[in-house]
Design goal:
The complex is a heterodimer. By secondary structure, chain A is α/β, with parallel strands linked by helices. Chain A is globular and about 65 Å long. Chain A has helices at 123-132, 145-148, 173-180, 182-196, 210-223, 241-249, 269-281, 311-317, 358-361, 374-378, 385-393, 397-402, 413-417, 424-437, and strands at residues 26-27, 33-37, 47-48, 55-56, 61-64, 73-74, 79-88, 94-102, 159-164, 200-206, 228-232, 264-268, 287-293, 301-306, 327-330, 337-339, 352-356. Chain A is built from 14 helices and 17 strands. In chain B, α1 (22-44) runs antiparallel to α11, α4 runs parallel beside α6 and α5 (102-117) crosses α6. Chain B has 16 helices and no strands. Classes of the chains: A alpha/beta, B mainly alpha. The interface between A and B is large, with 76 and 49 residues.
Chain lengths: 438, 350
């Protein structure tokens, strides 16, 4: 293993992974009513293929991808479509959704299927399988995977980096995935490697997941694979792709460009598992691992959840609340979004649901900026958040853009450390939207 | 949602915050200063307490009056209290005499009204308010500000006498034979002082600056609590010590590299200035590199003033002088942006 590398800047919020770390992945009860939004990815919403009254099979295609950047949506349960409605998603937007009531029998659940020998499948068929199975990046960005794994002509992938960092506090979804499914993940990595033909494959993992790192290393040796493991110092936001690349190969992705510019393709470790299931088992993306955590929850757990399961059912599964939650968060505490409707369904990007108490949040009233420079030390992109903030405050958008507003990755480190509690990231998001409109 | 009988709040990300707040910083700095302030009262008696009560009281009242609409908020953040405390600690205890009562008040008024609020209150002042207040009264009432009390223990009548740095300045004007450094000079002047007395604070001086030991303990507390960083204190102390070491022996006719570093580190307001005033968040540069430049500037200026200026003490003036350069330092020293080559914080053109 390499020595402990990392990037410049960043912060150390309380890890809180111990809330769930002693358990294992538990399978959540099937939802009686699944609410399946038709947009669970970056890009165009899928087109609805069903209407109320239709009888649906498990894993049936119910939403057809529209355009190049889009993803298919499948039914997580067999049953009857009772309505097409609109729901607010955990990260804010309102989306069309298919509501399916559970009935009938499962074709896969309970019947173990034999994995295919994917090495015999031609590349274009593998890519097609990934596309038709609705695989998206499961690290949170939900970028359609088949787009990422189709190299544009003339581009070469030097380094294929697997993001197993899970730098957000509380979350253990990727960690448990590696501990319980190392072989499937490694096969997924091999499948993707046949598509993008990287010169080097590196798994980046933080030192707080030593057990998973050791297990993967052992299996890599036993299976005689050409995959390296880079053990990284624990620091947020190590999982941000540009910082992860810098930490592992020491190169900086130029401002405003994609990692492929310097020959890197980056994917989340759980996505590799989903790719394996799609290609070797013909299984579309209908379930995912969700970390249910936070001090307000009675029994924090890591659950395997069918997409579309309302969060209220998962709360029951975890024994309800031991304390009133002050905030409910979809995703990690730093980049996740808070929401209020507990009937919100789990979607492909739901890596965790956190129920935070007032004490954990530690929110105070905003004061004036005291120019302490803590935000500058914390910024992983080398920006000057206080200057950008002041420019935006004085409505000097060009000045803010010159200072690097568009390079902000919205990781939240600056807001986290700000002693004056200035909501820097929220203000930057507004500024960025403003700039994109022009 | 029967289990939800309470409101859930929704905010933008991040959803959590560190435990740091401006309020906490201000009160912890005040707490770190407390032992030294209490030592000052023990050493110089009730007049010292009276001076600090005047400076703190007037600072808080002026802050409250200037910000009437939000008085409760800005008083709670503790910045006015801290300014008042620092002013009090930077004044000579002899001001505790009743006919000087207006001097601490004038210092607080200048600090809070002129320096802090004419530019918009906390966060917008371009000069350390407490130091500006001290320097204002120093130049306005030079006689009173150079009247020092010998340590007397509470209750006894105060006897006046010069500070070690003051004696040094006057002693150097007519230097005798066999004088090799500040300690022997002071002994020949009839005001002997030992390193131990300097370190523990059994010397005349400003109320809060005498005990290097208690100030260092306060500084360590702030470092552990991550309220202050080491960049400014280290660069300040190192540059100052280096210059003293190299040139400090010259006035005594000894060779280079023989200066009495320890004497200069322990005397005057250096420790108080280095750890509690040169580290003020508002009036120091934003970047670590900038702060190191700031610290070196302070160290060089303090050396120059102590050795070539007409005042014995140079810490306040050096810090204030460097405060003025902060906007320039921040303009020139910018963080290295990720993914941009050869940038000076300028436009992204990669």
């Amino acid at each position: 293993m390499k020595t402990m590398a990392t990037f410049k800047g960043g912060i150390h919020p309380p890890g809180k992974k111990d809330l769930t770390v002693s358990g294992s992945i538990e399978t959540a009860a099937l939802p009686n009513k699944a609410i399946i939004p038709l947009v669970q990815h970056i890009g165009a919403p899928a087109e609805c293929l069903v209407k109320p009254g239709d009888i649906i099979e498990e894993e049936q295609l119910i939403g057809q991808a529209q355009g190049f950047i889009s993803a298919n949506i499948h039914s997580p349960i067999p049953g009857k479509v009772i309505e097409i409605t609109q729901v607010y998603l955990g990260h804010g937007p309102l989306a069309d959704a298919v509501v399916i009531e559970l009935e009938g029998s499962f074709k896969r659940l309970g019947n173990a299927s034999e994995p295919k020998n994917w090495k015999e499948i031609p590349n274009d068929e593998i890519l097609n399988k990934i596309k038709s199975s609705g695989i998206v990046g499961l690290g949170g960005a939900t970028f359609p995977s088949h787009v990422k794994f189709s190299l544009p002509p003339g581009k070469v992938c030097e380094n294929f980096i697997i993001n197993a960092v899970e730098c957000e506090s509380y979350l253990n979804s990727d960690n448990f995935m590696m501990l319980e499914h190392p072989d499937e993940i490694l096969q997924g990595i091999e499948i993707i490697s046949t598509l993008i033909k990287p010169k080097k494959v590196i798994i980046g993992i933080e030192a707080n997941k030593l057990k998973a790192a050791k297990l993967l290393k052992k299996r890599i040796a036993e299976l005689n694979l050409d995959i390296q493991i880079a053990l990284l110092k624990v620091k947020y936001p190590q999982g941000a792709e540009k910082n992860l690349i810098k930490a592992i190969i020491g190169k900086e992705v130029p401002s405003g460009k994609l990692p492929l510019e310097i020959g890197v393709i980056n994917t989340n470790v759980s996505t590799c598992f989903a790719v394996y299931e799609a290609v070797a088992l013909d299984k579309p993306l209908v379930e995912r691992i969700v970390t249910m955590s936070g001090e307000a929850l009675r029994n924090p757990k890591v659950l395997k959840v069918r997409i579309g399961t309302p969060i209220s059912e998962l709360i029951e599964e975890c024994g309800g609340f031991k304390e009133k939650p002050f905030k409910v968060v979809s995703g990690g505490p730093m980049m996740g979004t808070s929401f209020f409707d507990l009937n919100t369904p789990v979607i492909k990007s739901t890596s965790g649901i956190l129920f935070l108490t007032e004490k954990e949040i530690n929110q105070d009233k905003m004061d004036s900026c005291v120019s302490c420079g803590k935000c500058i030390t914390a910024c992983p992109m080398g920006l000057n958040p206080t200057t950008i903030y002041k420019a935006l405050d004085f409505e000097l958008l060009p000045e803010a853009l010159n200072t690097g507003l568009m390079d902000c990755v919205e990781c939240g480190s600056c807001s986290y450390v700000c002693p004056s509690n200035i909501p820097l990231v929220s203000l930057f998001k507004v500024g960025r939207n403003e700039a994109r409109k022009k | 949602m029967s289990s939800m009988d309470t409101k859930i709040i929704v905010t933008g990300s991040p959803q959590i915050h560190s435990r740091q707040s401006t309020k906490k910083i201000m009160w912890l700095v005040s707490a770190a200063l407390a032992p030294s302030a209490i030592w000052g009262v023990y050493l110089f008696g009730l007049p010292a307490l009276w001076v600090m009560m005047l400076s703190i009281g007037s600072a808080v009242i002026i802050e409250g009056l200037l910000n009437k609409n939000h008085a409760f908020e800005t008083l709670k953040d503790g910045s006015a209290f801290l300014t008042g405390l620092l002013i009090g600690m930077n004044l000579p205890p002899a001001l505790g005499s009743i006919h000087y009562f207006y001097i601490p008040i004038a210092a607080s008024f200048f600090a809070i009204f002129v320096v802090k609020w004419t530019f918009g209150g906390l966060g917008t002042n371009w000069m350390n308010p407490a130091l500006a207040g001290r320097v204002f009264v120093f130049f306005s009432w030079t006689g009173a500000m150079n009247h020092w009390t010998l340590p007397s223990r509470a209750g006894l009548d105060a006897i006046s006498g010069p500070t070690p740095l003051g004696s040094l300045k006057t002693g150097l004007m007519s230097i005798g034979d066999n004088i090799t450094g500040p300690i022997s000079l002071l002994a020949s002047e009839g005001v002997p002082v030992s390193y131990k007395e300097l370190f523990l604070g059994q010397i005349p001086g400003c109320i809060g600056e005498v005990s290097a030991l208690l100030l260092l303990l306060g500084a360590i507390f702030l470092l552990i609590k991550k309220i202050i960083t080491l960049d400014i204190p280290l660069s300040y102390l190192l540059s100052f010590s280096l210059l003293i070491w190299i040139f400090g022996g010259k006035p005594f006719g000894t060779a280079l590299f023989t200066g009495d570093v320890l004497f200069h580190l322990l005397s005057g307001g250096l420790i108080l200035g280095v750890f509690f005033m040169a580290t003020d968040l508002v009036t120091t540069p934003l970047t670590t590199k900038g702060r190191i430049i700031f610290g070196i500037g302070c160290g060089v200026l303090t050396f120059l003033i102590r050795f070539y200026g007409s005042f014995p003490e140079g810490v306040s003036l050096s810090i204030i002088f460097m405060n003025i350069f902060v906007p320039l330092i921040d303009y020139l020293i910018k963080p290295k942006r990720f993914g941009i080559k050869n940038n000076l914080g300028g436009k992204a053109n990669a």
